[in-house]
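User: ok so my PI wants both of these folded by tonight, can you help

Assistant: No problem, let's get them done. Here's the first:
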Amino acid sequence: MLIGRKRMSWKEGCILLTAAMMVCLAGCKSCGDFAVGDYSAGQEFEAVTEKASLFSKDKNETSAEQKVSAENEMKRTESSSEQESYFEAHFIDVGQADAALVLCDGEAMLIDGGNAADSDLIYSYLRYRSLNHLRYIVCTHAEEDHVGGLAGALNYAAADTVFCPVTSANGRAFGSFRNYLEKQGLSITVPSAGDVFMLGSAEVQVLGPINMDSSEPNNTSIVLRVVYGETSFLFTGDAEKEEEEDIIAAGYTLDSDVLKVGHHGGASSTTELFLQSVRPLYAVVSVGAGNPYGHPARETLSRLSDAGVKLYRTDMQGDIICTSDGKSLQFSAERNADADTMEFAAEEPSQEEIAKTNAALDSADYVLNKNTKVFHYLSCSSVKQMNDKNKVYYTGTRDEVIELGYNPCGKCHP
């Protein structure tokens, strides 16, 4: 080996080469590269493989934990959703009138609104509960003691759908109702028997009216059956015997836990046959204290008592609220929870009042229906079907009656 011009011996060259190799190896180790004596190639592969296996295992365990967590969260959400479901039926004390509020899962349905004088009460009832949106408004029929206070509801709350058996009717109360509908750009939907719609998770079915040709507005009342879970409610408006029989004949399911008694407990409603079909456990009468119609009638109370029905009354107990969990029912009353509701509280007509009525009959020329604004001869068959509270016996000429705003009956042609 030559270095410069001097020839190096073989032995000196080997020593120098060995020293150079040692310096190179030392430099590689200091740089973190693979060094002789530290690891073999097989050991390094096994180490890398073990790390990859551990990473894969960690990843799989994390994925499984995330899946279990997601499933638990879903179960908690479903459980929370079930807990949030609720149902309440409010029977609002509006005196000698009807108003009920049904709440289910954040949605609301108002069934009737009492008299026009109850508009402020209905407005306040909704406002107190912050119910500024009504999924449905139901005017069971166009008489003032049902449609009157709906103007108050529409003055506070926006509505989606409004049901009524007619789209027009005489009277200031119905006119006000229509005006407030127009302000919201709403129109009346006339439902048909058999229609079904949902209120939250509750199912609502329209059972009546069946016959819209009835001369008695009470018998054109919208009748609703509401089912929530295993519990059920029947709202009958002012339906009387005629409509009750029509609904039974139509074959609809009537069996209900709670019955809103028809026509304020009048004797012409809640017949024995109807009660046998409904088989209620509870009933609510919306009625005014000391009303002049003798409501609830002694006969109706007797039928309810014979059927073993637990009765609640707004005249004695104020607002009545029924709560359902889908399986059982609980009632709360504003006052007098333990009142004897089967007591006949209304005064019967005195002999003097009966004599005055008979005298009016003897001298009357016509019978006026102050609700429909139609007048009849006393012998007209429609008079027998007329609600007593709408009858006015009039003595005078035909022209005088017409001047009062009444139209002649199409049957008897007075």
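One down. Here's the second:
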Amino acid sequence: MVINGLREYFSVLLLLGCLFPAIAGASQANPESVFDLLPELPRSLGRVTQRFDPADRKPVRSVFLIQDVHSNYTTQKNIAGILNYLAQVGELPLILVEGGSGKASLAFLRQEGTPTSRRSLAERFLREGIFTGYEYADIVGDREWSIWGVEEQDLYDLNFRCFVETKALGPQLTSYADWMNRTVEILSQRMLSRDLLLVRDSSRILAKDQSQLPAYIRRLVGLWEESGHSIDSFPMLAQFSQRQQPPRPIESFSISDSLTGIERLRVALEDDLARSPPEKEIVELGRIAMLINKLALLKWSPSDFAAYQVARSKSDAASWLMDLQRLAAASDLPRIEQSAVDRFPVDLEQAARFYAAAELRNTAIAENALKRMQAEDASSAALIIGGFHSEQVSRQLVEAGLRVIVITPAVGMDTDPDRYTADILRKRQPWRPSSLLDRRLSRIPESGPAPR
């Protein structure tokens, strides 16, 4: 049974946060190991970004983990194409999806209307965000797929409850972030070195214009090398080095392959350039302000959630505003109201619980996917989940002895966060709290590491 029709909304992710670090205990498989016959996926549909084999055994099952970008028409259409492509080049009897529990096929609708009318209606529903890519492929095609949701109902309900709470806190979180960002910006101009300001200014320009990404990376790489470091620690960014001879063509640049390295390089560069205690403090508070702003927009990636947990392990959230209050007072800058300082830790912890709840779902998704493959004796399956879940689910599947092939669909520029938020709140029926739900809620810590 599909959980209230909401199959795609609870892996809120950064669009480009697709590539995750190598999985411990797994080996990178060479391209020929994928089905032993999978040709290069057409770039018009997407690309294989990673492949993992268990390090201690030969895999007997394969999972094509397709990273979903929710409410994006182009992505959903390409997911449908990827499913058909995988079925053409090898056996693909089973499709597993997040946001649902139990049998989720819509193939019974094929008996309604004509093929042309079904395709026309499915296309319209896909554009409106009512259908997802796998549903589109299921209705307009003729393949006999077994399609199953791999969620646990109560965990999904919990994640929705936390979503509503976090969404409601958005304006308040934005007000905190706005004050922090304004204050940090003024203090940065007064206290940071020229190179640190260059990094901050470049990041701000990139946030407004993604087309500046190659120039942004070149700037970071240049500053890193000028500081006497080698770019070898960030191999995916080596093509942007001015020292590399001969340089690789920029046309080979892949955003999804490089984003993890870009973020690591920016943090390493700021840490290296921040020499004095005041500089270190401003840099850290700037990072926290950026995290809060992204939380208000429901745009945390797994690395953002991890960065938040690290920051919370070092200091209490209340101290972040108090430290910035102190710096603002010393520089005669506007201060935030004391009532806001008092509310800030509570609001922040409550909002962050949405991501702790999302992590709780990972184990259920991995376990249910494995159980379904075993129940149907499927040697391969496609698993369609959001990027926020991908790393942990992949790790658990590899640890269980499965091969995981990560596929990132080609993404269009037609994502509308406001639309899918409105859809989720409109479609979802009011939840009915249960003792089980309350127990699950109590498992999400107010601070510290998220449950794994």
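The beta strands are 26-28, 46-54, 62-68, 94-97, 101-103, 146-150, 380-386, 403-409. The longest helix spans residues 338-375. Good luck tonight!
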